[in-house]
Amino acid sequence: MSKNYKNWTFIFLAIFCCLFSRYPTCAAAYPLFGTLNYFMRITILFVLAAIPTTLFGQTDVKTDSILREGKILYKSEKASWKSSDIFQDRFKHLLNFYGTYFSYTEKDTTKSVFCSNTAVPYVLMTMSFTDQNDTITVDTLAREFTTLEQRLYDIKKRTSEIIKTDNFFRTVPDANLNIVPVIEGNKRRAYILTGPKKPGVVILGNDYLLEFDGSNQLTSKKKLHNNPILLYHDKNDSSSSVSYHTHAIESGELITATDISTLMLYSRYAGWKFHYCISKNKVSIWNCKTQELNIMDRKVWERIHKEIK
């Protein structure tokens, strides 16, 4: 079955569910339909969540870019998360020589590079993670930076200096600002995310995007959300499988790459199946299990919720 045929099958089913749920007299005349009526209403959201974003007037280009950036950040943050724990547990003897670390992806491998605190920094050790599994390769051979690593190190160092001297950036209690340097082609960027220090909380927002030129001079800085958004969860409470947050106009109509990265990191611990990002005109639906993003017009989304109620 072709992809387009499947898409229109989804649409037909969604329209049928909506129309049928509008006529409760059918339930009185046909008891079996009455039983199905409730379940059809519940089905509507899940059917529409499977429809591609382009069918709601949203271009694939924009959502593909968000997904790509989100997964780049996720791989970096996941590798940094795991490697820093390993470094502190197994390599305490190197802590006196440690300066900073960063992670980056090459093909299907993500590497975490731990750097020295010397005047001319070098690589203390490297940990590598593959996409196919969680196998970790540890290389304790001290070495010089590769060209790419030197550039990523310089971006992170420059970003750290900017954060310390610019009131544009905020801190959140019981949280850290995490710098993720990214180089794609000629584009040099640094994302800044806020990570919680305590379990049971997910922090969206208080995130930033910095862009640099080839000389690592700052060319632009942007708040991706106006304020930090704290979402609390209890791993022992499975009653809530859906989470959401809202976007002000300044944050844009769509979910951000930093939102997706954070959801990929924490949703399985929180037990979330879906997350909704609600803006003035759009609703971004993130499927935490399949890691798929779909966009709906907010008016359509609200109409569906009204039907379900």
Description:
By secondary structure, this protein is an alpha+beta fold. It folds into two domains: 3-51, no CATH class; 60-308, no CATH class. It is built from seven helices and 14 strands. The chain has helices at residues 3-21, 25-29, 31-49, 60-90, 147-165, 257-270, 298-308, and strands at residues 98-106, 109-116, 123-130, 136-139, 175-184, 187-196, 201-204, 208-212, 218-223, 229-232, 242-246, 274-278, 282-287, 292-297. The strands form four sheets. The chain has a four-stranded antiparallel beta sheet with strand order 1-2-3-4, sandwiched between helices. Strands 5-6-8-9 form a four-stranded antiparallel beta sheet. The relative contact order is 0.11.
Furnish the topology, listing elements before pairings:
Blueprint: H1 3-21, H2 25-29, H3 31-49, H4 60-90, E1 98-106, E2 109-116, E3 123-130, E4 136-139, H5 147-165, E5 175-184, E6 187-196, E7 201-204, E8 208-212, E9 218-223, E10 229-232, E11 242-246, H6 257-270, E12 274-278, E13 282-287, E14 292-297, H7 298-308
Parallel strand pairs: 11-12
Antiparallel strand pairs: 1-2, 2-3, 3-4, 5-6, 6-8, 7-10, 8-9, 12-13, 13-14
